[in-house]
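Pasting as-is:
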Amino acid sequence: MKNKMCCILVTLIAFCALYIRFSNEIIKYNNYFEISNEVRYVDSDILEEDYEDIIKAKEAAIEEEKKKEEAKKKEEIKKQEVKKQQAIEKVQEKPKQEEKKEEIKEEKPVISTTKNEVITGKMSGYGPDCVGCSGYVAYGKYVGNGNIYYNDKEYGKVRIVAGDKKYKFGTIVKINDSMLAIVLDRGGSIGIGKKFLFDLLYESEKEAYKYGVSYNTKFEILRNGF
C-alpha cells in the first residue's frame, strides 16, 4: 500500500513539473510572437513614412523644375520685348534727328551788336623804382616789392598797366590777344594822343629796359572799371 502511494505521489510531482515547464514555454512563445508582431508593425510604419518622403521629394523636385522653366520662358519673353522696343526706338530716332537738322538750318545766327573797344599803338614799360616813382601805383597798391600782378575777382591773376584817364581803375585790357592786364596807374606820357597808349609794369626799370617799346600793339578793352 505504501509503495502504491509513493508511486502515485512521484507521478503527480513529475506531472506538475512537466505542466509548469510546458506553461513557461507557452508564455515564452506568446511573448516572442507579440514582440515579432510589434517589430513588423514598426518596420512597416517606417517603410511607409520613407516612401511618403520620397514621393514628396520627387514632387517638390518636379515643381521646382516647372518653376525654373517658367522663369526661363518669362526671361526670354522680356528679352524679346526689350529688343523690339529698342528696334522701335531706333526707327523713331531717325526722323527726330532729321527734324533737328531742319530746325538748325532754319535758325538764324544771333549777331551781337556790342563790340569791345580795340585800339592799336605803342606800349612802353616801367618799374616801381623809376625816377619819381614811390613804389605805389595811382590806385594805392604797393608794388615796390616787385609784385607786378593783381588778383581780379572776375579775371583772376592779371598784369598791372598804366593807362589813359578815360579808362577807370579796374579796366581790363587784353594785349595782343595773349596777355590780360588791369589799369591801376597813370603816367604823364601815357594815354590817348600821347607818346604811349599803355605802360606795362615790370619788377624793375632794368627789367623793363630789356623789353623796350612794343610797336603796333593791339589793345582790346574787355571791361571799363571795376
